[in-house]
Amino acid sequence: MSAPASTPPPAPSSPPPSSSSLGAALADFRANLRYDLPASLVVFLVAVPLSLGIAVASDAPLTAGLIAAAIGGIVAGTLGGSALQVSGPAAGLTVIVADLVNRFGWGVTCAITVAAGLLQLVFGFSKAGRAALAISPAVVHGMLAGIGVTIVLGQLHVVLGGEQQDDAIANVLALPGQLISVHGPAATLGLAVIAILLAWPRLPRSVPAWIQGIPAPLLAVTLLTVVASVLMLPVERVEVGGSVLDAIALPVLPTSDLGGVIVGVFTVAIIASIESLLSAVAVDKLRPGQTSNLDRELVGQGAGNTLSGLLGGLPITGVIVRSSTNAAAGARSRTSAVLHGVWIVVFSVALLGLVQQIPMAVLAGLLVHIGAKLVNIAHMRELHRHGELPIYVVTILGVVFVDLLTGVLIGLGLALLMVLRRVVWASIEVQEPSSGQGTWHVVVEGALCFLSVPRLSRRLARIPEGADVVVDLVTDYLDHAAFDHLSEWEDRHRLSGGSVRVDEVGTMGLVARREATAGGPGDRRPGPVPRFLAPWSVWQAGHDATYGEGWGHGHRSSEPCDDGCGGASGADPILTGLREYHRRAAGLVAPYLSDLADGQAPHAWFLTCSDSRVVPNVLTSSGPGDLFTVRNVGNLAPLGGRGDDSVGATVEYALDALHVPTLVVCGHSGCGAMQAVLRSDGGFDGALGRWLEGASESLSRFRSGHPVGEHAGAAVASEVDRLAMVNVAVQLDRLARHPGVATAVEEGRVRLVGLFFDIATARMSVLDGDRFVPASTDRLGAGTRSGAELDHRVSSATTFPVSG
């Protein structure tokens, strides 16, 4: 008797999935260990001096830096979402922590770190990881640069053998006096550290690789500590104040100023989260194919900060310096970050006495170098190109001369204002005729709304009465106030004897008129397509009401048009199109054509019909230099024996001279040539008739039931369209029989592709075996092995409904 349905079947004898997963994990660990182990040692050597220096800059116990480094490696490395990111105390939090220590004391600062870690856990579990990336990069980079400037201004005094002041302004004012009274041994050591850090990456290639591989911070700190000890220089040295184990203590709960404590918690949590997430994204770029789990990374950072605060450590973040070092050293997995934390624990317990030999000026020199690197010239250039440099500068000034939170808030406020300005602010330019007489041009670009009406009014007031005016309206938004103002100005100008023609290049003039006609705003139907995709009849004035009426008056066909307005009496649409090309497109396409001036290397030979509705570059989203296009009536390929070698010549030139990898034949719906072939049924007259004899084979195969025509589906495709599809397959067969093409296909140098364009729906399909499938499918392959048998490898192809 069979077991009841509710009784599970006996378990197989193979190991359970958990055992299998554990075995795979162990195998990966062993495979990666030979890369991760040496990488962890390199990161450890970089992390120790950096952690000590950041503790000094934060006014925290030196042991707090080592505790945070160890926990950042072990805890955040294990739980975080970025495999190669290394966490620990970061320069980006030094100003914040120093302020918290001065205000609340070290014990309360540790409690703030714990609370910030718990808040980060909330961020991670609530899937808020990517939300932090919405903050403007200009603000983030400005914040880091402001912290860097603050560190440099303060630590320069220590490098020179003096004491840093209470704030940035005091540091700036005291710096000249400090330079005058430089303290010899300390200044020598500090400046020597900076010199080594600057020179080490620029060592000549003749230096052995193992020497170049020594971390510069470790070399500088070790070398100059030894020099100071050997020479017994009278300089201030690091005071640890006990072992790391003695430094572990529970945090102290605050008893006053709870508002300030709460602000500190949110500040540490948000800044640490943003810096960690940005670092994780940057590390992903160092190792293509790797993607961090940002929510898990927040969980790892939160757990690390919670434990670091409980044990008396500094706040931690993901640190790009250590993470990039980890990636460059060849790390493969998170094991490297975890091991680096283990080495720090060993060092902190067994070798802490060595730390007390380090001169303070040496650590200060290291911090000056770190701070200076936070001011990134490349970031400044990039932000300048995007017009966001003011945000960066304002954020720096706020962080340096006020405080970090205020600086960030000021930067965010300016970023929002600049975004608002871009959204609601239009560029309005009035161009006076060079000769003093002629047509005035008003160019309006961007979003034109009520905020721009006063400026628009001032610009338009410059135009004298009776002048001829062309308004280029390149707008992506136009509100009712701006619409009314332009309409009223146009009426007044016409009454003064002038003429106005509105050239609507953008999409919102049409919408504005619809709103005015309908009596209400809110019509968000699609506006006209860009002119390079639109027919002349749509955008050249005088053809229809859509573009020819301006603001309700527009250009009349009886009015003179001396600047190629198009559509008006006597205007040539070709010349108008050429003028439009030179006005708007030539400058955009010139850089690409300049690169192609010395030759072409097209990606495809493209045979299609002469039909004016088929535009190959539009259908393939291609540009200059991409397609070697051949056009004729019916997209025929008579490659021999018919007295016309034009197609064959282009094929041979494409294969032998241009080495194109793809040959394409593209048919289309409603083809007039195919209609003529069906009507004549093979009996042709005249030059066109003799040419269409090249389609006799297509007609014969269609009549005999070619599978392409069968699969097209009589219910959804007309007879003409099914013949056009068969014709594409037949022309591909002809191409495949061409000796040069056959050899190239056999050698894998060329693929054949058949396309069909349905004009009514603007949809393209691709010939796959014996049927056409939508070109939009994600799994289209790329090539054929022979003739019309296209190897597109679409496993679930369906018949393409040509009629839509």
From TrEMBL:
Subcellular location(s) of the protein: Membrane
Pfam families tied to this protein: Pro_CA (PF00484), Sulfate_transp (PF00916)
Enzyme class of the recorded protein, top EC level: lyase
Keywords (A to Z) from UniProt: Lyase, Membrane, Transmembrane, Transmembrane helix, Zinc
EC number: 4.2.1.1
UniProt cross-references to InterPro entries, sorted A to Z: Carbonic_anhydrase (IPR001765), Carbonic_anhydrase_CS (IPR015892), Carbonic_anhydrase_sf (IPR036874), SLC26A/SulP_dom (IPR011547), SLC26A/SulP_fam (IPR001902)
SMART domains: Pro_CA
Major subcellular site: membrane
Statement: the UniProt record of this protein carries the keyword Transmembrane helix: yes
Ranges of residues in domain SLC26A/SulP transporter: 33-392
Purpose: Catalyzes the reversible hydration of carbon dioxide to form bicarbonate.
PANTHER family with a match to the protein in the record: SULFATE TRANSPORTER
Family affiliation: Belongs to the beta-class carbonic anhydrase family.
Protein name: carbonic anhydrase
Organism, scientific name: Actinomycetospora endophytica
Lineage of the species this protein comes from: Bacteria, Bacillati, Actinomycetota, Actinomycetes, Pseudonocardiales
